[in-house]
Amino acid sequence: MIDTWLSEVGGPLLSGPPSHLSGTETEMNQHVTAETGDPITAEPTGSQDVVRLVDLKRRFGATAALDGVSLTVKKGEILGIIGRSGAGKSTLIRCLNGLERPDSGEVFIEGREISRLGERELQPLRRRIGMVFQHFNLLSAKTVEENVALPLKIEGRPRGERMARAAELLQLVGLSEKARAYPASLSGGQKQRVGIARALAARPALLLSDEATSALDPETTRSILALLKDINSRLGLTILLITHEMEVIRSIADRVAVIDAGRIVEEGAVWQVFANPESEITRSLLGGIRPQLPPEIASRLAEGEGAETILRIDVAGEAARRPLLSELSAGVPGPFRLVHGGIDHVQQQPVGTLFVAIPGADAGHLAKVTTFLKNREARVEVLGHVASPV
Amino acid sequence: MSPVLFELLLRSIWETVLMTGASGIISLVFGLPLGLALVATDRGGIAESLWLNRILGAIVNGFRSVPFIILLVALIPVTRLIVGTSIGTWAAIVPLSIAATPYYARIAEVSLREVDHGLIEAARAMGGNRWTIIREVLVPEALPGIVAGFTVTLVTLVGASAMAGAIGAGGLGDLAIRYGYQRFETSVMVAVVIVLIVLVCGIQWIGDRLVARLDHRT
User: Fold this and answer.
1) Closest chain A residue to B117, measured at CA
2) Hey, what domains does chain A have and what are their CATH numbers?
3) Exposed end of chain B (fewer CB within 10 Å): N or C?
4) Which value does ipTM take for this structure?
5) CB atoms within 10 A of CB B173
């Protein structure tokens, strides 16, 4: 039963345009709109972008919440947007379903520009975009199943269909036995599962997650993220999530965009951004989960000569799969020792950061070491020297 | 207490119940939408319209600032227009309703305003329109407060209806003044007070039970 249902999720949108619809993009758009009155199902042929943002700007008084954001989300991918509080994440995600209107710029959802649509035109469109909230936003006066079925009630579906769908979704999120309970009796994780089930009820093409795990403890966070990942891979559902936790990005996102002061400062495949963060803000956000030079060593670093030179070596992907350190000791003879670091796996890709101390290294030896490593696609940075061995 | 007085007491109870019940229902029917309108038209509301909000607010405040005994007399022409007479129980229902409606609207407004804005946003994100938000979110979520507020309004109406004797509406208050106070029938006074206590406690008890049943917030 679940299998048949799974294949339906996403509706006509995820399974591509119906075969009887042919002709140009414009014709198809008109056709679908006229026939179903459901504008978002009109997907331009060839476009795999569920979301495309072009130079989005939004100011609140003197502060620019969004200062020229351009971004695309491809069908079936999980894009994570990370930033500090007040970086513009919430404004950005709310522009995608028209809860917030940009001052300028364009928001394309399935190829359709929505930022100038009226509230009435946005309503059918929002039914195709599920949203999960940090504080769950479940209705306290409705039972769990009524909460899950609410999007269908809004769509005007008959009660029997709504309840059947709610039962399927509660089974999917593992809360069938709580169908008749009220949200107040649920734990935070259970509430968010209900929130996710509700967001999926109307078979959305896109799921927006607004800090969905920020109010949850680490263990519950993991299970909620696993559920989202599972939904993404089983249903092919496109997910855009915003978070301030790099751990969330690392767990489930395919691509990450880092937002700071209303601008996307960095964007790319998660493992690549983890391996080679370019902006200061990204490095800072990664600080919590990537190896950092221990503070007691960092505080002793100095310029010039010293007993030991501290090197930072970053490797990722292919470079991290080779026996780099044994190659180094064979290629450039001389002692070195590992001070701190390790290899992590992000999106099944090894991403490593190693802090290495080279005793009594002169400039010539150091140059040889760095050249040797760089030739093997490692990134090397001489952090400084310490007067006595650490 | 003589059988005649007892009969008078029974009639007065009925009149008080009638005045309270009828004006209570009328204040609910008009006060709840008025409270909704006050919340919806306010800044950031689902139908923001500040000028309308200001006008509605001014009307509500206007009626609420007039003492009921004055309203009772001042509304006599209106009462005559609606009921055909300005004397009697039904005539008292008009000023009672007109006084209770803005009162209840304010109480309902407070409950409606307490509904978490995130819930309204969730309903909007689901594609709900204003009507959906009112029907599925605002009213159900505020229902415990709406019912509790209605209980308060009914109790207030029991008290206010005592003044309606001034226009010959009868009721328990009128009985207590004319027989208990002016004719020194202490037994009538005592009986009226006991009946009023029972009545008010009964209303409050039913209201509290209902609220407990409706409230799933914790």
Assistant:
1) A137
2) 49-285 (3.40.50.300), 295-386 (3.30.70.260)
3) C
4) 0.88
5) 25
